[in-house]
C-alpha cells in the first residue's frame, strides 16, 4: 500500500502563504519593536552613567553625540536657577530614562528617572 504525499497534505497555495505571512508579520514587527526599545533604553542608560556631576554643562551635547543621542531630542526646562534636562526613550512613547540637573555652568546631579 503506497500513499502519496499529495493525498495526505493539501497543496500550498498563494492563499495559504498569504495567511501564514499575515499571521507571522505582526509577531515579527512587535519583536523588532521590543528589541529596539530595549537597545535604546540601554544606550540612554549608558549615556546617563557617562555624564558626571561637576563637569561643564557644555559637555552634555558632546557626550550625547558620542553615545548616538541627538541633543535636540532632550527636554530642557528651567526651574529657578537650575536647568533640568530629561532624555526621552522615544520608543517607549513618553517615558524618560535620564534626568540631568545643571546651573548653566556645571552639572549638579544625574540620575535615572523612572
What report would you give on this structure?
The chain is of the alpha+beta class. The chain has one domain. The chain contains 3 helices and 4 strands; from the N terminus they run αααββββ. It has a 4-stranded antiparallel beta sheet, with helices on one face. The longest helix has 37 residues. The radius of gyration is 25 Å and the shape is rod-shaped.
Question: How does the SSE layout of this entry go?
Answer:
Layout: H1 5-8, H2 14-50, H3 59-66, E1 75-79, E2 82-89, E3 95-102, E4 107-112
Q: What are its keywords?
A:
4-stranded antiparallel sheet; alpha+beta; 4 strands; 3 helices; 114 residues
Number of helix segments?
3
Please identify the structural class as seen in this structure: alpha+beta
Strand content: 15-25%
Strand order of the largest sheet: 1-2-3-4
Tally of extended strands?
A: 4
Overall pLDDT: 84
Helix percentage range? 40-55%
Overall geometry comes to rod-shaped
Order of helical and strand elements? HHHEEEE
Unreliably modeled segments? none
Terminal CA distance: 68 Å
In total, the number of domains comes to: 1
Largest sheet: 4 strands, antiparallel
Q: What is the CA-based Rg, rounded?
A: 25 Å
Amino acid at each position: 500500500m503506497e500513499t502519496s504525499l499529495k493525498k495526505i497534505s493539501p497543496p500550498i497555495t498563494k492563499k495559504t502563504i498569504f495567511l501564514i505571512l499575515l499571521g507571522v508579520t505582526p509577531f515579527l514587527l512587535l519583536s523588532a519593536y521590543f528589541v529596539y526599545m530595549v537597545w535604546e533604553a540601554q544606550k540612554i542608560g549608558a549615556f546617563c552613567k557617562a555624564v558626571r556631576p561637576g563637569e561643564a554643562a557644555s559637555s552634555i551635547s558632546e557626550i550625547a553625540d558620542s553615545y548616538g543621542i541627538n541633543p535636540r531630542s532632550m527636554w530642557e526646562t528651567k526651574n529657578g536657577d537650575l536647568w533640568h534636562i530629561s532624555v526621552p526613550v522615544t520608543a517607549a512613547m513618553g517615558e524618560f530614562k535620564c534626568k540631568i540637573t545643571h546651573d548653566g555652568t556645571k552639572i549638579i546631579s544625574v540620575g535615572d528617572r523612572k
